[in-house]
Design goal:
The complex is a heterotrimer. Chain A contains nine helices and ten strands. Chain A is of the alpha/beta class. Chain A has a domain of about 160 residues: P-loop containing nucleotide triphosphate hydrolases (Rossmann fold, 3-Layer(aba) Sandwich). The two termini of chain A are about 35 Å apart. By secondary structure, chain B is mostly helical. Chain B has a two-stranded antiparallel sheet. In chain B, strands 2-3 form a two-stranded antiparallel ribbon. In chain B, a hairpin with a 2-residue loop joins strand 2 and strand 3. Chain C is an all-alpha fold. Chain C has one domain. Chain C contains 13 helices and no strands. In chain C, helix 1 packs across helix 11 and helix 10 packs across helix 11. Classes of the chains: A alpha/beta, B mainly alpha, C mainly alpha. Chains in contact: A-B, A-C, B-C. At the B-C interface, helix 4, helix 5, helix 10 and helix 12 of B face helix 4, helix 5, helix 8, helix 10 and helix 12 of C.
């Protein structure tokens, strides 16, 4: 499979701190790639650089665009990265707490007529699109077994549903690549496996995942390939079974 | 508007005037004086924000109340002892700050209110305290027949003034610089050498892990308010030894400068707040003197210089860590990382 | 006690109520919907007032063949001329009114739009503070800028309906104009926010970083919101200039902003009807205070200070004990709800 995302010699320094120091990774299309490492090893910084939160100090990020060629996306702002098809979730889920589940999903579609100030006051101009989007949103929620919560507020949901919703939200667009930051944090083992089963199902539909996760017991059963970061550098990479047995990785985790 | 002002000024001023050495040296003394004052005003703002995460508009009242503690002691009881005034101001203003926290900020945060709600509540408190002071002053003026609404500079006893060559250092200058030095040393010792200081830093760096220090978070936050309010109150006392006339608007009239100094420090770094104090004092005083001498710009336009500095700070080096912030770059360089 | 003039009282109260309503509704759009902590509301109100006042006075003189640069409207001669010439011709008065409203909208809106540039990326504290201090700078500038009358400001602004003759009738027509603009603002804001745009604004308010990561151009949304809010505030300002027939820098103190904030917080953030109720309560209280104060005679404690302490306390108390205000935010009404209900019922899912 060709790569959908490549990071080449990516580095991000904060003053003297080298949070990320020359990391090269590639994510093939339709794969689930894990990104692991001890706390402070640069995983979240990598996510932040790829999704446009930071400009890299050095290196480049390339994303496969619709015409099939690789295009540099480093330096774009987060909203622009999203519009290129990269969806990000957060360690602490960021949902819109005053909106209902349905509305949270409906915020996502990028080109909404009713979001334009000159069209918004005139319902007739956007009603048709709004109904279509609602149909799609309800369909998605049903598919993931969340139809009971369509009108619920975010505060009424369980942690697992919140994590799921953050992922579903991205499916309203033509997202290609998901960056998930600790999807299994804060949920019990069974729910974590359920979440990863959903992820595997979405992969079958053509999506690609890059996942930061501490719960290696769950992660390792689902990923195709794993990168291990340590002190901002790539420590090891390979298939899950290879990485788990790499003495450098074991030492880094134990020496922490 | 500015080109017109500049143009008119230019017409009135055909030859470049000379800035004499005397003017320059006394101006420099003023800049140093203001630098110290701004440090004393703004460092507690940074201190309180980074530990409590409340953007505190009441800070302006803290300074005014500190000044009025000194004024009421002087006007009603004839006090001219600066240390007594400072101790009273520290206790009263620090107490008000703790009271605000217990009555308003703590219940709001406990209920999970957003930082914006905390800020708006501090704005409400600001209005309340401002007019409470007006009321107190009206009462004091009514019963004592002393005009407290505009009070002249207080001359404190025991504090010498020093003359070095042609430069005269007023007693206010001496008091301010000593206080600033004491505050900086005190804060350094507190934050670096004591358990409480370590706890304060832990709360600001990582609120979740902060319980480890052994001092309950509540206590740490209350003590932070006491210290922050207290220092700002002491700053108000120092203001009474310097300003020509003190009014209930004293703190409000300096709020732009004080907050800008804090913003330059990103509301997190005390060192950068100190640098900000020197920067704003210099830009304001040297800047307006230059503009006045060469272009006859009126000195009341002084706050414009501070505002320009504020805007420049926000555009060039936005304090994104503090009080929210959007990871959005106005000047982006796609695929051109250095 | 003087004889109570109910009609006069109502006309006065409702006019002030109308002006503040426009400010409160737009502040609610900015703060309650988009999460923009606009502590500089008075700036845009003031810009509108000064634009309206300047245009009307200068043009009234100029179009009546008086050179406004020889005999400026802030001079004694100018004021005399304005009283003599102003409000005589219906077409001129209405034309100037329309021009002023339009110019006030554009000027105040543009300043709001431009002011968002430095504050797009920083947190609400910096936004609030920058706008607050900009207001103070505007006052310093106005006090020293002679063409708009310096610290004395502009006076004898011709009333737009002065040509009607009967002063009571003309102020009644003016009231209708103000209330018309309130209705326009209220309906426009309700329509604007009960839409995908309102949903997007609330999303930005709830979590601007998440909204940015979902592809929303958050800085642009904020700039646009401040443009709209400020533009309407500018129109309210222009109407205020006509109502008081004078403007001066001290009318535009930060206190005006806090008044509006208190009204919006009391009424309920995110609910425009609540804002209107908040405004009604506050303006009524002020009108009553204005009646009661003279009856109190000479008091040691100024009722004005008590009023302001009350405003400050009210903000704190509402935030503490009634954070949603009198009327809580209502869920959005878009056809999506209706569509979802249909699907869930047809599909057999529970709702």
């Amino acid at each position: 499979m060709p790569n959908i995302l490549e990071a080449r010699d990516l580095a991000k320094y904060f003053g003297g701190v080298r949070a990320l120091d020359g990391v090269t990774i590639s994510v093939p299309e339709r794969s689930i790639v894990g990104l692991i490492g001890p706390n402070g090893s640069g995983k979240t910084t990598l996510f932040n650089v790829v999704t446009g939160f930071y400009e890299p100090t050095r290196g480049e990020v390339l994303l496969k665009n619709n015409s099939g060629s690789m295009e540099r996306i480093d330096g774009l702002n987060p909203n622009e990265v999203f519009l290129k098809g990269v969806v990000r979730t957060f360690q602490v889920p960021r949902l819109f707490t005053s909106l209902t589940v349905l509305e949270n999903v409906l915020v996502t579609p990028p080109v909404q007529i009713g979001e334009k100030v000159l069209d918004a006051p005139f319902k007739s101009r956007w009603e048709k699109q709004e109904r279509e989007l609602a149909k799609k949103a309800v369909g998605l929620l049903k598919k993931f077994g969340m139809e009971k919560y369509v009108y619920s507020r975010i505060t009424e949901l369980s942690v697992a549903h919140i994590k799921l919703l953050e992922t579903i939200r991205g499916l309203m667009t033509s997202a290609k690549l998901y960056l998930l930051d600790e999807p299994a944090a804060g949920v019990d083992y069974g729910v974590a496996r359920e979440l990863f089963n959903y992820i595997r199902g979405l992969r079958e539909e053509g999506l690609t995942f890059l996942i930061v996760e501490h719960r290696l017991d769950v992660l390792m059963d689902y990923v195709d390939y794993v990168y291990v970061l340590h002190n901002g550098k790539l420590l090891s990479e390979g298939k899950p079974s290879e990485v788990v047995n790499d003495p450098k990785v074991i030492e880094a985790y134990i020496g922490g | 508007m500015l080109p017109q002002v500049l143009h008119r000024a230019y017409l009135r001023c055909p030859k470049m005037p000379q800035v004499s050495w005397d003017v320059l040296s006394s101006l420099t003394v003023m800049v140093v004086h203001y630098s110290f004052l701004y440090m004393i005003f703004a460092m507690p703002l940074t201190l309180s924000y980074r530990t409590t995460k409340v953007i505190n508009f009441v800070h302006s009242n803290f300074i005014t109340y500190g000044a009025y503690v000194a004024i009421l002691l002087n006007g009603l009881y004839g006090n001219r002892n600066m240390l007594l005034a400072m101790a009273s101001a520290f206790a009263i203003v620090g107490g008000i700050a703790v009271l605000n926290n217990i009555a308003v900020f703590e219940p709001l945060s406990r209920r999970g209110a957003k930082p914006v709600a905390l800020m708006i509540s501090s704005m409400g408190l600001w209005i309340f305290y401002k007019y409470l002071l007006y009321t107190i002053i009206d009462l004091a003026t009514h019963f004592s027949r002393v005009n407290f609404v505009s009070y002249p500079k207080i001359v404190y006893e025991w504090i010498p003034s020093v003359s070095l060559d042609s430069v005269r250092l007023s007693s206010s200058f001496i008091a301010t610089s000593l206080s600033a030095a004491a505050m900086i040393v005190g804060l350094y010792v507190l934050l670096e050498k004591t358990n409480l200081g370590r706890a304060m830093r832990a709360v600001s760096d990582n609120p979740i892990l902060s319980e480890i220090s052994g001092i309950p978070k509540r206590t740490v936050i209350n003590l932070t308010w006491l210290i922050a309010g207290g220092i700002a109150g002491v700053g108000g006392v120092l203001w009474t030894s310097y300003a020509g006339a003190i009014t209930p608007e004293a703190g409000d009239s300096m709020i732009l400068q004080v907050f800008t100094v804090g913003f330059i420090g990103g509301l997190t770094s005390l060192t950068r707040t100190c640098i900000g104090a020197v920067l704003i004092a210099s830009i304001e005083n040297y800047g307006i003197t230059l503009l006045n001498q060469f272009f006859r710009v009126e000195t009341s336009y002084k706050p414009f210089l501070t505002f320009v500095t504020l805007i420049t700070t926000l555009i060039v080096s936005p304090p994104l860590g503090a009080g929210g912030g959007l990871p959005y770059r106005l000047f982006r360089r796609v695929g051109k990382s250095a | 006690m003087p004889e109570f003039d109910l009609i006069g009282f109502l006309v006065q109260w409702l006019t002030v109520f109308g002006l503040y309503s426009i400010l409160a509704i737009t502040l609610n759009l900015e703060a309650g919907f988009a999460g923009l902590t606009n502590f500089g509301k008075v700036v845009f109100y003031g810009i509108g007032a000064y634009v309206g006042a300047t245009l009307t006075t200068y043009l009234t003189l100029y179009l009546n063949n008086v050179d406004p640069f020889e005999c400026p409207p802030y001079s004694i001669d100018g004021i005399v001329k304005l009283i003599e010439l102003g409000g005589k011709s219906p077409s001129l008065s209405i034309g100037l009114l329309a021009l002023s409203l339009l110019a006030a909208f554009i000027a105040a809106g543009s300043v709001g739009f431009l002011l968002t540039y430095p504050i797009l990326r920083v947190g609400p504290a910096f936004v609030g503070f920058t706008l607050l201090s900009f207001g103070e700078l505007m006052r310093i500038f106005l006090r020293h800028y002679e063409p708009v009358g310096g610290s004395k400001g502009l006076a004898a602004i011709p009333r737009p309906f002065g040509w009607v003759g009967d002063p009571r009738l003309s102020s009644f027509i003016f009231l209708l104009l103000v209330l018309g603009l309130v209705a326009l603002t209220y309906i426009a804001m309700n329509k604007l926010t009960n839409s995908p745009m309102g949903r997007m604004l609330r999303a930005v308010r709830d979590d601007e970083i998440a909204a940015l990561c979902l592809g929303k151009h958050v800085p642009g949304i904020k700039a646009l919101t401040l443009f709209i809010g400020s533009g309407f505030s500018g129109m309210a300002g222009a109407l205020m200039a006509y109502y008081f027939t004078s403007v001066n820098p001290d009318m535009f103190v930060p206190a005006v902003t806090f008044n509006v904030w208190a009204m919006v917080i009391l009424g309920g953030m995110g609910n425009f009807t609540g804002s209107i109720i908040g405004v009604a309560l506050f303006t009524l209280m002020d009108r009553l205070l204005a009646f009661i104060t003279p009856a109190l005679g000479v008091a040691v404690i100024s009722p004005d200070y008590i009023r302001w302490m009350f405003v400050g306390l009210l903000i704190v108390v509402v935030l503490l004990f009634m954070p949603k205000g009198l009327l809580a935010e209502r869920p959005l009404k878009t056809p999506a709800l209706d569509e979802a209900r249909k699907l869930l019922v047809e599909g057999g899912g529970g709702a």
